[in-house]
Design goal:
The chain is an all-alpha fold and about 140 residues long. Helix content is about 75%, strand content about 0%. It folds into two domains: about 1-50, no CATH class; about 55-125, AhpD-like (Up-down Bundle). It has seven helices and no strands.
Length: about 140
Amino acid sequence: MTENDLFDRGLQVRREVLGVEYVNANLADTDEFMMAFQRIVTEWAWGYAWSRPGLDRKTRSILNLGILAALGRAQELGIYVKAALTSGVTADEIKEILVHATVYCGTPAGRQAFLAAHEALTAAGVLPDPPEDQTR
């Protein structure tokens, strides 16, 4: 398989999981310098790792959420919450993943992960907007 084949396969999977609009916007904002990174991500993560037969996309999404929570990568976690929903992970499962990650990674990482996931789930329409006054 050539690098171009791996990129093409990765681009297809990346669009299926993250959404066509998100991926196309990422690529549209990429200059020649940053395209080196886009190629690495698309070929390695999506063309190689996400395309392997050993795990389904739901399982890979669950792993990503736990890994990103552990690394304290809240911004990336927010992106992958939408991908997890696309891959069949429910909001309740995301909550349980983050509870588990909080226990093993600590409350600061867990808090950031919960906040990022809550924002992404609310934006996706999976969770209702919070009430105006929560002090009552």
